[in-house]
Amino acid sequence: MKKLPFLIFMMVYGISFSQNYKITYLKSSNGSLIENQDPIVVFTRSDITQIGSQNIFNGKADFPNETTIIDRKTNSFNQVANLNATKTIHSKDSISLGKQTFEYLSDTQKILGYHCKKAKTIINSNTIELWYTDELKVKGAPTILGQNLGLVIEMVRNGNFVIKATKVEEIKLFPTKPDLSKSIDMLTYKDLLWKSRFTTISVFKDQIINFSDASKSSDSILCFANGTIAVRKIKIPEIKVGSQIFVDVTEQSNGDAYDRTGSFFIIPTDKPISFLDGMRNGVKTLPIYNNGNGKEYQGMVVNATYSPLVELMRFFTPFGVKQYNTLQLKDKIWAENVLYRQDVSDLRSLLTNQEVWIGINIGNYDKGGHKVSANITIHTEEESKAIASQVVPLFCTNNIMEMAGQEYGTMFNSDKGLEVTFQLDKPMKNCKLRYITTGHGGWENGDEFVPKKNTILLDRKEVFSFTPWRQDCGSYRLSNPASGNFPNGLSSSDYSRSNWCPGTVTNPIFIDLGDLEAGIHTLQIKIPQGLPESTSFSAWNVSGVLIGE
Length: 549
Known about the structure:
The protein is mostly beta strands. The protein has 4 helices and 34 strands. Strands 2, 3, 4, 5, 6, 7, 8, 9, 10, 11, 12 and 13 form a 12-stranded antiparallel β-sheet that branches. The chain has a 6-stranded antiparallel β-sheet with strand order 16-17-24-19-22-31, covered by helices on one side. It has a 4-stranded antiparallel β-sheet with strand order 15-25-18-23, with no helix packed on it.
């Protein structure tokens, strides 16, 4: 990251003030100094106090960075943030300092040779003790708390976190005061500062996902399957190993009242055929998987010429949030939208420093459909012991092109289930299967509402089995205004389901596979899929990628 220009904080003589002080503080936790810290530095005199860090005042701080300037004449302070080399923002607070209250205690002690008194306060359930001195005739503190007590030499939070002065110096040079003429409100200031701490990549903004012949592609966004899929190419910057990567989707109904399967996904293009080819040229152009049950499953498993979709996040729409909020119930205040957010840091190698096709789908047959926005956020971690990993897409039976004829994931009605053969060109260590699974279909006897065990086999040996099931669906009732209500007092959205609830994300699970040798391997998924009943049938949306070192 770029450093702060030194001239912004160049030092000048304090012409009319004879007592200028510089105080340096270090932080300790549980009795030990915190390693590699940037010391807090306070400059203070009778009319002004500036709080920052050693690197900030020396022009060596990374962006963003923040200083606080207290105006002693007006008992107000300005928060000043340098977001980058050219943009600085600030906000003024004329109220908070005057509202601070303390309990003054009789304890005294000498710190750095100064006679110190003790005050105590409680902030957000934290007990904070401050040791301050009046001997220097100036005021200041390493945080905004206690600025009017005197010169705070030591702060102790909950008895185990300490900020303590290590040096008090009388100086001739004092930091220049930046231009504070264009202030913004504190809420906007905090929001801009927070957003500057990470990278946000907007993928979709108020995108309509519906079923309509009128759905058309634009220059940047391609629409497929009658508008139920939107895809665009995104340039992703380099992401440092160990950084945190999140995806988020905001959804509201634009007409559809039902709970639908949604997916935010990557389209791998590392092989001659991609899922994008199937969307452009028809689902029949995708590789076919057969398991002997008489059906053909298009584009669902890896082979030598094709990599399946990689789901960043599987989510489920609630029953009609926003569009059907007019369906009133006493003591129910419906949500305006639903936010889905998930950590996808494990998929870093598919994103970093690449142009990537990213898509979103909500399976529906409604002309109004749904309105969605989606982002990727990158949060850099400087200190991390994380090891770079590689990702191998293996399978995805979520029929994202359902509205363009892609078969449902019904292959589990045979003993073979889903069987994937893949080849590793070199060994992989500490392998894990990132596995997402949800059951669908039928009514009360369908797999959506009946717990079914998932069994995973590697090279013909069982490595893991579990029963995916969600029992917390009633927690999301306020996102489901159009959910049907039954005579027993339950809403449809209350009912437990096979690893999903209306209005939620389905989290992947990570299955340890150990070290894998180079060569050909077989992964098999078995689920005792329920039999069809009249026109109702059961299906399973499962997806998996291999992650290893």
